[in-house]
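We emphasize that the prediction below concerns an isolated chain of 395 residues; any contacts that depend on oligomerization or on bound cofactors are therefore not represented. The input was used exactly as deposited, without trimming of termini.
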Amino acid sequence: LVLFMTLPGLALFYGGLVRRKNVLSVLAQCMGIAGLVTILWWACGYSLSFGTGNAYVGDFSFKFLNGVEPGNVGAGYHWISDSMWCMFQLTFAIITPALIVGAIAERMKFISVLVFTALWMFAVYFPFAHMVWAGSGFMCGPLNADAGIKAIDFAGGTVVHMTSGWSALVLCIMLGRRRGHGKEPMAPHSMVLCAIGTGMLWVGWYGFNAGSALGADAIAANAFTTTTLAAATAGFVWALAEWVLRGKPSVLGFCSGIVAGLVVITPGAGFVTATSSVIIGVLAGIVPFLAVAYLKNALGYDDALDTFGIHGVGGTLGAILTGVFADEKANSVVAGLKDGLVMEQFKAVGLTIVWSVAATVVITLVVKMLVGLRADAEVESLGLDLAEHGEAGYE
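Result of the prediction step, given as a token string:
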């Protein structure tokens, strides 16, 4: 289900939002990232994420999946088999850099996307997966009594959404605006594709959130419930905000709100109650909406498909609200962490922002030096589909 979120869910969601001359480039970037990250995960990514290592990153003990066997049930801190845990976590590793595609759509070269992704996985994703979800991780509050930051993140508010969202903001600023941005129409070419992709994302998100319980138990059932309520509420509130402020509710508004609700509930899905998830959904329909509708224009950056507005802002909001609404009625692990949890969440948010931003600045400069960043004017005008992939999405 989690891989279903990326291929085809996210690919279609993003594909519908770009202009028709760039739809295949988005699909190719998502598929290319899926292939590249899978190879890196096999080679050493899983080991760097979940090997013993230190508080910040793992080691190479599981390189090439050495010792990761289907029969190793109960090894480590998870009760499912090592190979199942490895493949489940791979799907998270795939979707995270794919989210960044939305910020740089229609102007970044395919080779540049791949080189950036490879470097970013080592500098950002693997360390954060380890810090938050590995038993010895620096920010793994539920599992590490000696964690430097005793924060909680059920399914990836910091690891997935904040890292990708804040990195996307930096990358789109350093990449520059699309040519013609603000001067010519750049409306989505197919809201039908976008709506289909949204539905696939919503369904796949149950694997993301409920699946993170690692069992068909009460915590999984609660995560299923809170995910549904937050997504539905946020989609409704976002469209309602459009209706009030712009006179009409749009399908794009419903789609954006649903995804925002899914993002914001992600870190707290298994830690908050149903009632709290509705409140979280309301806030998810308002705060990211304001970021997308007003902040982007006020600051002038070209986050093409609103990766930062939805995932960066939404992930940050979700991480903080998880600290506010975490309840031991939903998950007993909260009982030992409740005191001071909000401050711990703020610390996790701060570290995630600083690390993601700093690493992305350096990586972007390196990629620019190695292969360049964006397509030239002629390619961008023709469209990346024909220029970079030799095919068109529509005849």
